[in-house]
Fold this protein.
Amino acid sequence: MELDAQIPESPTEEMWSTHKEHMRLVGPRNRPRYRVIMVGTGLAGASAAASIAAMGYRVDCFCFQDSPRRAHSIAAQGGINAAKDYRNDGDSVYRLFYDTQKGGDYRAREANVWRLAELSASIIDQATAQGVPFAREYGGMLANRSFGGVLVERTFYCRGETGQQLMLGACSALAQQIHEGQVTMHVRTELIDVVVVDGRARGIVVRDLVTGQIRSHAADAVVLATGGYSNVYYLSTNAKGCNVTATWRAFKRGAGFANPCFNQIHPTCIPAAGEQQSKLTLMSESLRNDGRIWVPRNQGETRAPGEIPESDRYYFLEERYPRFGNLVPRDVASRNAKEVCDEGLGVGATQRGVYLDFRDAIVEHGRDTIATRYDNLFEMYERITGESPWRTPMRIYPAPHYTMGGLWVDYNLMTTLPGLFAIGEANFSDHGANRLGASSMMQCLADGYFILPLTIGDYLSRHPYGDVDTDHAAFADAEREARGRIDRLLGIGGDRTVESLHRELGHLMWNHCGIARNAAGLEEALGRIPELRERFWSDLRITGSGAELNQSLEHAGRLADFLEFGELMVRDALLRDESCGCHFREEHQTKEGEALRDDARFAHVSVWEHRGDGVDPVMHEEPLSFQTLPLAQRNYKT
Amino acid sequence: MKFTLRVWRQKGDAAGGFRTYPIEGVSETSSFLEMMDTLNEQLSTRGEEPVAFDSDCREGICGMCAMVIDGQPHGPMPGTTTCQLYMRHFPDGSLITIEPWRSSAFPVLRDLVVDRSAFDRILQAGGYVTLHSGPKPEPNSIPIEPEVAEEALDAATCIGCGACVAACPNGSAMLYTAAKVSHLALLPQGQPERYERVKKMVGQMEKEGFGACRNYAECEATCPKEISIKFIGRMNRDYLRATLVEPVDPRGPMESQ
């Protein structure tokens, strides 16, 4: 597997502009002759499909939901970063680049991160022009709030539903292109394989989730915007349908998978209540701006939180990190919450929770101000838990949230499989070993509005259009394999439900490859995942047929891929014998319990290559260089 | 907790009907959909086909979940989607009736799953600002009063679930369409296409077979995002202006290049 990142040879701050100037273009009259497949309609997929369709390319766009607007980007709450420096607090492209690299613990590619920071401001311009109603100040100017891990205020927001509003912007642009016939939208349709012809990605095999029909689509390039794989843990903040299938199928067809062990555990989620729980709900990180995080100082505390005096409250983040306090990066906040719970200081019925308290903020700023900022979040919390944050502190606990790993892509966002692109959370992206808050939407939209529309043109211009259609034998083969997999799933005839097997995988991954990992636990998981996979293929029971709407069958297909993928994740976590960002190997920590990197051995991207079923995958390294921002130990204490 | 569930089952072209299922061992902390998951696990284990229902984010924002519970779309709690209902809100031992959205514009695909693509077609008819991706004006060069931005957001907060249609005795989609139209009509960015947009979207709404609005206001009472029917009045004003007052350009609407 060759890993040429295609990084332009110019100074970092000029790379993107130089690269753009030298890219090959497709003329407006030729663009309608090229067809592009876009899988996924979250912020990355919808924005990319709309942008390239507006340029004149033909696009076939797919989502498994009943409408493109439902993709899980819709659930992002807090906001989107942009280096506008509206607050005059010293923000700049460099500062955003710096924060992202440092936050990612120096495991991202500098060239990509710089470009992301550089494009951030244009995203706000684009979204505003679409009619995204960002919060405004009294004078009519755009408002900003601060977010974890940074010292400037650069986050733009629409109450607690920034994701929905940016999605509506992107989806409205997509709707326009559907109306004009540039985009053919296929809803309730799921990718089940990627088709490769002569070494290039030339199409996909899909299942119509309503009729069960298996069919193929051919194109000149295929783009995966299919999100992350946090549902490998069963319980996560992802939507129920989020899955690894598209990226995993691409991996098995030759695309390298990068840093699968980098997954972010979000610190502010509502703790799990019991075994029937189907997902975890995130409370926006912006709550940490005003909420103070604490646990009782003493084990076995029985008093209600309101009755615990100041002296018996342990504000552990404020005490341990005086400079950043409750606004330390997500990985640091999550790990500290786990630690205090491990010490027996956790709160709530399960003892896996910490308080997030608004008492002082309400006194300081007044109820009205706090209501403007968090009313809908407070409401949501009360609905789920039956407790009001106005009267008693919230209880929060970390939950799997975002995956920094994904398909390896070069500077042009193309995977190692020519013609296959990956954007948004589906690629291994710009966030290194840890993503800062309000940066995921920024990356999705930078990829979708501004980067892919140009780089895909460069690729397409080098190839003739429409020279392969679905009559090619490769499509028939892929369809046959896909049907075989479905028949096999339906024919197992065991007695276990998909949910119960998924829950089992989730427990295994959370316990051995979760907030903190160690070699012994990872080795154990490496032995137990194949066992679980065997049980899946012998004990599963699916009722109904493949020729109808069958949600158990959909879930089973996704779980089958998670059961293979989980093993790769553990393998990667085991091989990365250092701590960095969210990947915390207990063997490697500083005296203060911080992640301790090993730059001499691990300043690289781990890229995994599939070598066939039953054969161990091979890891390749893409070395990372640090020319613009030299390596430094992350420090959020002083 | 235990319940008796009367659930609408429907498959293929066959007529649907209610089936009754007793369910036990439901945790008080579980959500309504988690209760449905538990039912489905019990059905699967017995070799029966689980109840098909839509859900995705399960945090009340994607708009995918859609059940009529005891006659009310999204159930008894105001301002709440089905996925945000919790079983502690239902008396232990009660009978719960669960149906799909009821509207001829939303045909049933299976059990509780309906086809809401009519909503997408209304949006595609004009629910956007026509533009390409690329350099745009600096946002602060067009100041917007915060009250205006907030009001636009009050409309834009619509999650497109379709409860308004399911709640309306006439099956009208006026609240949905009005929310979409008003969001852009309130903002400076939406002005150039304001009147053309309302004509196109209302026209599409009528084509889709939704009923007429008679101001029952059931939609507002049911909307999980509590969107106000004032937006319907606002849309009607724009529509009247677009069809009666605004001069008709003899050249017809401009097509994009």
